[in-house]
Structure formats: C-alpha cells, structure tokens
Write a structure and sequence with these properties.
Elements lengths: L3 E7 L5 H17 L3 E7 L3 H8 L3 E4 L10 H9 L8 H8 L1 H8 L10 E4 L13 E5 L9 E3 L22 E6 L4 E8 L6 E10 L6 H5 L4 E4 L6 H18 L4 E8 L8 E7 L9 H8 L4 H12 L9
Parallel strand pairs: 1-2, 1-3
Antiparallel strand pairs: 4-7, 5-6, 5-7, 8-9, 8-11, 9-10, 11-12
Length: 316
C-alpha cells in the first residue's frame, strides 16, 4: 500500500502564491511516483481537514506564518502527525532573525550586527549609519526589506509617506548594509546525516534579490555552482551545515549569505536560515539538488524519508 501524503500549502501569508506553486509541484511529483496524495489549501479549518484526511505524513509546503513559525508545527505535534521540515522549536527560532542570531553567533557563525528598532523611530533619526538595511523580524523571502542609502532614497530622515516596511510592521531589524555578492547554500537531511549541497550566486537584473526578483522568471541570474574561490565555497557550505544542525533543522534548509569580495573570509556573513525553502520551478534548493544528480522527485522523497526518522531539537 502506498504512503498517503497530505501536501499542506497556500494559507494566508504574504507568500501564499509561492506556497501554492511549491505545494502543487510537490503533489504532482508524488503522484507521478505512485503516492496517494491529498492536497489541502490551508484555511481556519485545517485541523479538522487533517483529521479527516488521516495521512501517514504531511508535506509542509507552507511559507511564512503560520506555517513556518511553529504554529502549524505545534498543531500537528498535538495531533500526533508526522510532518516534513523543521519542528516547533526550530521553526520559532529560525523565523525570528534576532533569535537566530542569538542561537548562532555564540557558536562562531558570522552574522551582521544591528539592533531592533521601533518603526516610529526611523522617522526621527537613522538607527545606524547609512547605508543600512531595515527588515521585518519574522518574515521570509525578502518580504518588506528596504536598503536605506546615503543618497536618502526614502528621505532623510525616512519620510512617513515613503513606501517601506515601517508602514506595515511596528518593529524592525536594522542591520549594516554589506556590499558585495549574494550567495545561498542548501542543506538536506537531519543531524549527522545532514549534508550541504552547493553554493549559488544570485545576480538580480536590477536592484537587489527581493521577493519579485526571487519569484519572477528572468529577473535574477542563478550561477550554479557559484564561481567563487574554493575557500569561500567551502566556508558557505560549512556555515550552512553548522547553522542547520545548531538550529535543529530537518528536511531541507537554505542559508543566505552576503560576501564582500574585497574582504576575503572576513567579508562573509550569514543573513538568515530559511527552514522551508521554496519548491517552485525557480527555487534554489531543487536547482542545487539537480546539479548534484538528484531530480525533483528524488528531492521530495528525500525530504519525506527524513521526516519519518526521529525529529531533532536545537542544540544551541
């Protein structure tokens, strides 16, 4: 009898459409391999619908809250359901950029400095010397990220009517802007069985690697594998793997980096760890897996197989 997999997707976060693309891609791949698949577009009755479906395992294809922040994970834990990717504690920490720093920096993972600021404060004074970055504390996919430059692109101080994350979020993370190159490295598996895949360099055609650049075909060039000095490639993979293990990630994760190529190793910083990376046609984890000889269906099956072993919690 084939495994019954519920693919949980959609929801109501700002990343809903991306989640639907991911989820339907996963469901199509599983059906092609003979799995019994139930697709659930998450709504407020999700617990009832999961109980009625009675799956062997849930493939969590949600992006953003409440599917990536521990909320759905806690619900499924209470229901006794097996599910893919990271567990409750890991999800709570990794979605929060400040908590992630507190978990990783003491273990030698280089991350940008910065501080939490009230959005109201940025209209009175700059929280950091320009250029700097303002971003929501617990959003993914570069949602709501603003780069505040010395040229005062949002005004100086930032104008209240300037479009930016200060209009949507009460608190923001302010970080120094790191010039240079955008890199990302994927990890699959759990604990000692986890392994880093490779490093991709992202070259947006304009601006920076924001939400539109990530999910609009033709807006970003993916250089995979990245053309980097070996020492930088290996450092990215090692740091991504270390972060994955320290946070207790499962299934797969993707760590995003900025590298100031004028500073060598000292210019490499991990920005964030995404515990439920996209599985769309433009997504980076399937692309890296493909370059490693693992097709999309193989990757989906590997994530499911990982979820069927005992879940790890953060060790940090």
């Amino acid at each position: 009898m084939s495994l019954h997999v519920v693919v949980l997707m959609g929801g109501w976060s700002s990343e809903r459409e991306v989640s639907l693309l991911s989820g339907n891609g996963v469901a199509d791949a599983l059906e092609a391999r003979g799995y019994r698949v139930t697709r659930i577009d998450m709504d407020r009755q999700v617990a009832l619908r999961l109980a009625e479906a009675r799956p062997d395992i849930v493939f969590n294809a949600l992006h953003g809250a409440p599917g990536e922040d521990g909320t759905v994970q806690g619900m499924m834990d209470l229901m006794g359901l097996a599910y893919t990717h990271s567990g409750l504690t890991t999800s709570v920490i990794a979605i929060d950029k400040e908590l992630t720093k507190q978990a990783l920096i003491p273990h030698g993972v280089p991350m940008p400095g910065g501080r939490i600021v009230a959005s109201e404060e940025v209209h009175e004074r700059d929280p950091l010397p320009r250029p700097y970055v303002l971003k929501p504390i617990n959003e993914g996919s570069s949602v709501g990220v603003a780069i505040v430059t010395a040229e005062s692109n949002f005004g100086n101080p930032i104008a209240r009517d300037a479009a930016g994350p200060w209009q949507e979020f009460e608190r923001l993370l302010a970080e120094p802007y790191i010039r240079g190159r955008e890199l990302t490295a994927a990890v699959i598996g759990s604990g000692e069985n986890a392994r880093a895949l490779m490093v991709t360099e992202l070259k947006p055609k304009s601006g920076f690697y924001d939400f539109a650049a990530k999910y609009t075909d033709g807006m970003t060039e993916h250089v995979c594998p990245a053309e980097l000095p070996d020492v930088i490639t290996e450092a990215c993979k090692e740091l991504a793997l270390r972060a994955h293990r320290l946070l207790g990630c499962g299934g797969c994760s993707r760590s995003d980096f900025r590298w100031d190529d004028e500073q060598g190793l000292d210019g490499l910083f991990l920005l964030e760890v995404n515990t439920q990376p996209g599985m769309t046609p433009l997504s980076l984890v399937p692309e890296q897996a493909r370059h490693m000889g693992m097709d999309y269906g193989d990757l989906v099956e590997a994530i499911i197989a990982d979820a069927l072993v005992e879940r790890r919690e953060p060790v940090a």
